[in-house]
Amino acid sequence: MTTTVTPGTWKLDPTHTEIGFQVRHIMSKVRGKFDTFDGTLVTAPDITASRVEVSVDLSSINTGTADRDAHLRSADFFEVESYPSMTFVSTDVRQKDDDEFVVTGDLSIKGVTKPLELKVEFLGEGGDPWGGTRVGVEAKGEISRKEFGIDFNIPLEGDKVMIGDKIILQIVAEAVLQPAE
Question: What is the fold, at CATH topology level, of the domain defined by 8-177?
């Protein structure tokens, strides 16, 4: 069975969307999110012909700790004064099962662009109390921060390091169908 979504342009609803991440930190994991972003989904009658573009304001990083967030904005990590945003532009959409997709695209961070594969679950489409139409999706992917030139670390005892290389990206999103132009 093929998932169907109303064709059109959908804008991410920032109050009902979270773009988050987690990374290993010594013996635990640190989680965070980005508070400011903009994204558009353009759905086609053939869902595999759809596309998505998202831009994230890297200065809006929020791990719940102001000092850590300031360090993440610095040249040791995101270098937001020179590279203020992270972008994702899809290049392919494949349907795996009824509500499961793989969305492949180009992720750009700090002037470096690498492919990213997101496993996406379609959560549904329906009306909202304000007369609009919404879709919901949940996506997960993984990147190596070192591949994007984010390689700051502090060596620990033995061959361990303070911060892991693998970053898990987790997106839970609602998007609102825009009026046809």
Answer: Lipocalin (2.40.128)
